[in-house]
Write a structure and sequence with these properties.
This protein has a domain of 177 residues: Rossmann fold. Helix content is 26%, strand content 35%. The two termini are 24 Å apart.
């Protein structure tokens, strides 16, 4: 058995309405089997787990939930040092509503904004039946201008500087007159550099706290319009694409996907049902669809889903594109002739092997008997052991950095 300990860090316990804080530690044990075929890796992945991170509960978490393992200390700092008050709160921290959970009942209206379907599932379960909290799938650049009163953000520093710049400009544009944004960033991910970007955008910026490498800023609405066009147009393999910032490999074709496409060209595609699991900006989905396949494309990141939809439109192909936590948006009866994937194995900066285990288990679940999986990965990742129980498995292509595995159900 492989045991991974997660959610280990500082929490906040609230003592009544005075909001006095003390620190404690909690841990949630996630046990993963070394996947050897038809086991419950997918059920384990999709399970929602109730916790009590702030001395109250339940607050639901799950494997694959973006941001929380890296964000709990950031949220704790924000809750201790920021004076959160007003009528309307927007929690855009990417932690499935951790700030909204702590502030429950303190605001007339609260919105939890998430791009991750995994986090949306957790937030929906946590706040079910609460009329003051709305859960919304969306990005910061989709927010209407001048309407947000209090916004809490952990900028997506793990997704590149362009993504952060667009997010900061989007928050600035969204704030109402007199509105405030509270932003938390870590020094190892460019907090000092991004503070300068915040100071260039907002009228009034104050450093409220620096602790454990984290930096908490308060910024007030600016007096000018920060117009935003987040779309990045580019050409790959002679085809037009557009991507939102921060989507995997936006603006180029990554070497792994290029190698996977070399192998995928050999799939008999006319009328073949193909699942692109983790579609990114849509390169593989579009290329396979242009060959005549019937393609369903899934991604947990809403920005990736929107990018794939736009890329399909640019290339005049039909794709079934769904916002999905791995295979959560698929019906049990939906089966495919082939699955292509470049499974993620990071959450933030940490390697999380439960993600590719869930991807491979989903492929096995949704492939018809005799169906084929094509998977590209870094050469060092031990996916061969995971695929040992399939009918057959072979190394279809390799380079010094990447390999493509072909497995038949």
């Amino acid at each position: 058995m492989l045991e991974i300990i997660g959610f280990e860090g500082t929490t906040v316990i609230v003592d009544g309405p005075s909001r006095e804080f003390c620190s404690t530690h909690y841990s949630s044990l996630i046990t993963l089997s070394c996947y050897t075929g038809r086991v419950n890796a997918l059920d384990d992945y999709h399970a929602l787990h109730p916790t009590s991170p702030f001395g109250r509960g339940p607050f639901f978490v799950k494997q694959g939930m973006l941001g929380y393992r890296e964000g709990d200390r950031a949220v704790e700092l924000l809750l201790r040092k920021a004076d959160l008050g007003g009528r309307c709160l927007l929690d855009a921290t990417g932690t499935a509503g951790a700030v909204a959970f702590f502030c429950r009942g303190s605001f007339e209206r609260t919105t939890v904004l998430e791009t991750s379907q995994a986090s949306l599932r957790c937030a929906a379960r946590t706040f079910v039946g609460d009329p003051k909290v709305s859960i919304r799938a969306g990005t910061l650049w989709d927010l209407p201008a001048g309407q947000s009163e209090v916004v809490c953000v952990l900028p997506s520093t793990d997704k590149g500087s362009l993504r952060v710049q667009v997010e900061l400009a989007s928050v600035c544009r969204a704030l109402a007159r007199g509105g405030e944004a509270f932003l938390v960033m870590h020094k190892d991910q460019g907090a000092k550099r991004y503070q300068k970007a915040v100071e260039a955008l907002f009228d009034d910026v104050e450093v409220l706290a620096k602790e454990g490498g984290w930096r908490l800023l308060r910024a007030r609405a600016c007096s000018f319009d920060t117009g935003i066009d987040p779309w990045l147009p580019f050409t790959v393999d002679g085809l037009p694409f557009q991507s939102l910032p921060g989507v995997f490999s936006a603006g180029k074709l990554d070497p792994g996907s290029a190698l996977l496409w070399q192998v995928a060209r050999g799939i008999p595609t006319l009328g073949t049902r193909v699942l692109d699991l983790g579609c990114g900006y849509g390169f593989l989905a579009v290329r396979v669809a242009l060959e005549g396949a019937l393609v369903t494309a899934l991604d947990d990141d809403l920005a990736a889903v929107c990018s794939t939809q736009r890329s399909a439109k640019l290339n005049r192909v039909h794709l079934e594109v769904r916002h999905s936590d791995v295979d959560a948006a698929l019906g049990t009866e939906e089966l495919f002739d082939a699955v292509v994937m470049n499974p993620p194995f990071h959450l933030g900066k940490k390697v999380r092997l439960e993600l590719p285990q869930a991807f491979i288990a989903a492929a096995e679940k949704h492939l018809r008997p005799g169906g084929e999986l094509l998977l590209v990965a870094n050469r060092a990742l031990p996916y061969e052991r995971i695929l040992d129980s399939w009918s057959s498995m072979e190394l279809a292509a390799d380079t010094p950095a990447f390999k493509v595995l072909r497995a038949v159900k």
